[in-house]
Write a structure and sequence with these properties.
The protein is mostly helical. It has helices at residues 2-32, 37-40, 54-63, 84-117, 122-142, 150-159, 164-168, 170-186, 189-201, 209-212, 216-219. The protein starts with a helix and ends with a helix.
């Protein structure tokens, strides 16, 4: 149990911290577009309890990949703009990609400093690589068009003229939870996401091993 807690601690810190940035960004964009529900529901907060999803958190503890509570905005408050869900959900993805870029620049700086200062910066570089890999993976995972994930709202907002009923459907929500677990267990979805994430990470000379190693029980050696 102690080994498991030590293993999960950095992942939990990243999940909560980066997830809060993602959620707050989406809430801010929704509010700026005219939505009031995000503010009423407390999504303009850095309190993790306002953003954590019980099933998404459980998935993180079991499968090492999770999701935050879906953003419940009122489509009528948004003036029924079809582009609004696109902007809201992509803003969260953009926040994670911005953190990846910032981390990547720090990683390049550390690589430059290592021979100049003759210091062993491997531990710090590994932590930065963990941070970058998590944010890229989290961004791509959120783009999957599965209920509970931002990618689903993004798709529905583009296809439906009045998507509020689809957003609020509990049956679709439960289906989303089930589908995510099935995909993780029975399909190579994790391998696909790792491969896609690696393309981004290689731009800064990273491979993401500190984070992707968590998925070894599900995808084999990495």
């Amino acid at each position: 149990m102690n080994d498991y807690l030590i293993k999960m601690f950095p992942l939990l810190i990243l999940f909560v911290g980066c997830g809060l940035v993602n959620c707050y960004t989406r809430a801010w964009v929704a509010y700026r577009l005219g939505d009031r529900q995000t503010k009423i529901q407390g999504r303009f907060s850095w309190n993790p309890l306002h953003h954590l999803d019980i099933f998404g958190s459980a998935s993180l503890l079991i499968f090492y990949v999770g999701w935050m509570k879906p953003m419940q905005y009122n489509y009528n408050d948004l003036g029924q703009k079809r582009y609004a869900p696109l902007l809201i959900e992509l803003s969260g993805v953009g926040a994670n990609l911005a953190m990846w870029i910032a981390g990547g620049l720090v990683y390049l700086l550390l690589k430059w400093l290592e021979p100049v200062t003759n210091l062993d910066l491997r531990t710090i570089k590994s932590a930065v690589e963990f941070f970058c890999a998590f944010n890229v993976f989290f961004a791509l995972f959120n783009l999957l068009p599965i209920p509970q994930l931002p990618g689903f709202k993004l798709l529905v907002g583009l296809l439906y003229h009045k998507p509020q009923g689809v957003y609020d459907s509990m049956a679709i929500t439960y289906m989303g939870w089930t589908l995510i677990v099935i995909l993780i267990i029975l399909t190579p979805i994790l391998s696909w996401l790792i491969s896609a994430s690696s393309i981004f990470l290689k731009l800064f000379g990273m491979i993401g091993r500190p984070y992707f190693a968590y998925f070894t029980p599900f995808i084999g050696g990495y």
